[in-house]
Amino acid sequence: MESLSSLQIALGVLAQLLPVWVGLGITLSLSMYYRPRLGLYGHLFDSRVGTIGLILVLFWVLTALFADLIITHDPLAQISGMKNKRPGFPVRGMEGAFYLLGGDNLARDIFSRVIMGSRTVLSIAPAATIFAFMVGITLGLPAGYRSGRLDTILSFLSNLVLAFPVILLFFLLVTPEIRSTGVPIYLAAVLFLFPIILFVVLVQSRFYTQPTKRNIYVSLVLVIGFWAYSGLAFNMDPLGVFYMEPNLLNIFVSVVFVNAPTVFRIVRGLTLDIKTRDYVAAAETRGEGPWYIMLWEILPNARGPLIVDFCLRIGYITILLGTLGFFGLGVSPESPDWGMTINEGRKLLSIYPHLAIPPALALMSLVLGLNLLADGLREQSLKD
Amino acid sequence: MQQWDYDGPILEIDNLSISFFTRLGEIPAVMDFSCVVEQGKAVGLVGESGCGKSTVALGVMQDLGVNGKIVGGSIKFKGRELNTMTDEELRHLRGSEIAMIYQEPMASLNPAMKIGKQLMEVPMIHQQSSAEEAWELARQVVEDVRLPDAKRILNSYPHQLSGGQQQRIVIAMALMSKPALLILDEPTTALDVTVEAGIVDLVKGLGEKYGTSMLFISHNLGLILETCDDICVMYSGEAVEVGPIENVFDRMRHPYTQALFRSIPLPGADKQSRPLVSIPGNFPLPHERPSGCNFGPRCNYYEQGRCNQGDITMPALADDPNHASRCLKVSEIDWGHPPAAAVQTQSNKIGKLVLKVDNLRKYYEVAASALFGGGDTRVVKANESISFEAHESETLAIVGESGCGKSTLAKVLLGLETASEGSVNLLGKDIQKTLIQDRDVDTVSSIQMVFQNPFDTLNPSMTVGRQIVRALEVFGIGASENERNNRMLELLDLVKLPREFAARKPRQLSGGQKQRVGIARAFAGNTQVMVADEPVSALDVSVQAAVTDLLMELQRDNKTTMLFISHDLSIVRYIADRVMVMYLGHVVEMGTTDQVFSPPYHPYTEALLSAVPIADTSVERKHIVLDGDIPSAMDPPPGCPFQSRCQHKQQVPDNLCERELPPMKHMAEHHDLRCHLSDDFLASMIPVIQLAN
User: ipTM surpassing 0.85, yes or no?
Assistant: First the structure.
């Protein structure tokens, strides 16, 4: 059987991505239609940079969502005779099947691996960013609002974490010796507590004037929070819904740990600025508690810069995950992690360039999309 | 480029139209604007925010940014068309022939460069002078703007100077190249009144000394009267009335100008017998202007079918060719007719004692270095032995400039700070040592505050209704969500806002409307004492009257005690029953409004009174300009706090003022002042403001 020509490969890839194109079309046309009512998201389409960023990000999100429909082969299956084969090479023994982007060193389909790799990245990066934000917000608000000694101590600690070389820290956290001491679990136990604290305080400060409502909401938060907590941090969920592999937990915790201090500093700085506003003084003069002021008066008005940083930070964490994979600290040795795939391809780069280029392009386009999106959001939030 | 000789008017603006191009399409900011600035004359441009006055200035500078564009008309400077000049030619003109002075002095100076260097740049770039010549010129100009110790000033950085000194430097920089035209955009708005008086005095002298023509932009009619020869009143992008200043002030011929004058508190206005008349409605947004006359919907003389049709031109008046008005009915309106008698009101009897402050002191300790603790701590004496009483239904005005301690006093009253000494008694309860979180809900809700900046007083990400409901929740009012919602709607009615506003976000409201929401929120509980911190000073003139009225009405209905903090003596005279004048943490004079506004004065009160510009040609003011700036509260002068700037200090023998803090002198019933001047001297003082016949 003949190999595919370049044109045929391109057409084949585009055809495989059909679910993504459909999804993209629907999302964008709906967004355009309801644009005037969508606030900042709607304004995003006024900026060309922002629109391009949004499309790139949406492309990868949808790819991760429909990955099962898109892949042509099992990303982990090795088919004999396909080792390091050129893009468009027909699969031996299967009529009309091709390795669209060629085969890798272990004779697996690169196209399917890249597509599946998006799932790993897009499930860890945003979740880790959200956790880093919750930790940073819970600590940054009181540091900025209260200032004084609390601020000094927290700022010092965050500087300490930031001063430590990130890669070294990761190597430490993932080495078996450290893992056997249980440090990552303790770290997870501490870090995963912050979201619960944040939500409890959020509800308590808002509804303390209406005790019945408050009790319902607080207990709801506590039940769900500790249920998820027991599963994620200690793998002891009685119902088995929440679960995280030990390897994944390690990476997740480390990523949150190194990103939280930066978020902390941003939130602290924004709080220092916003706390001088009259509406904060107005809340103080009507006797509001400090947590209400921090969470309901200050935080919502800091959202602009935080949203922008959120996008940038997902991109940054994506690169970080890639780097970790590259150094062999990936989620699992076999997983189609982009960073890991690049590292494997790197060894044969001079002979078989097609091994490393697709995952590298994928990583680049996602991060580029996130950065452009952040730029667009910043530009639009500064207007009017 | 050489300065060419030219005899005609310095600046001729003819039918100028400027538009901004935005998401919403073309938004006209200035339409069909004409104006002439003659050599050596000053023209005042007056109007409310958003009327396009600053856009005109930027248009003259040809600096409208990426969105702005001149879409019609011409701007001629010394007979040469500016609209068609190249960037190169304009660069030669800006800063050398035309100079501009902005509102914020700190934003106009480069914080990383010494003053001298910044000033020297001007002649070095435009006249290719040598560094020595430039330095000499800089020194001379700095002396011309009446700054002491020119050498030290030239060697300092902008942040080492006070606001008033910075603004003088900005003016000096504009004068370095001896420009033919000076554009001043609200040059004194960011400054204190007594400092403003000094700047105004300086600006007035410039025209005479340098022969500079001026375009003076301000929202303050009094200031324009003081500085300008001609005036141009703008409304919503159009000039509505132009003419020589006396003609316009004494014989105004446009309903907007008239309404504007009726809404500002001039001497003679009185809250009971001659209340202010506010202009109904709101300023139209640029893309929502009505057809025909822009002022039509708010005008008393509006005629359906006539005023809302076609373009309205601006002909000169038949009896006064220099004076023009953009009004169709100019010859039909009876301009001398007094305003329709506004509803006269009866204020409540002043009732029982509500708030008693006795010998209150508030000191702050400031560490010399925040980073390493230790070192010297310095004490800032924000409030020194303040004593006063306030009664039910009474308005007590607290007057003073920045740094006088009025905000600290408010903080102590509200429980954001505790007093260092002395007592604050609210409704029989001592609260001087109780911070707000330790106060019970009743105490908290009984003393509330209205803030100065309407754009900052509401949380921008919460709906208006939600913010009021929250106050009700905290004060424990209403048993259910529904009850609170209804109460919130009632509060909106009370401050005369439509109920639909409950669902709006603050950014959809105008400044005056936001301030009303702030007032509604402050009256949510059982408010007995209202601390109003400059509640109207950030609002446009036409809105000020309405908000002031609202405050007084709520006070009448609720028998509230109002502490009205302000530096604006015109509004204080209008609204207050008693006045307390503060300077550097001390109360220097206290008395009923009449007592404070007539002699004998404390020298500071006298200076304050003379510093406030009054928009009335028939008023004659004694002219007192204080030296220097307000001293820092970190480092107050010894003896009397005011001695470093006092105009009568030499009347007191033996340098007593520099050695001893004067005692509170009892002048008459309710009237006290803190001064060493002899009774004879005080008795011989003449009134600062006199109405000529």
Answer: no
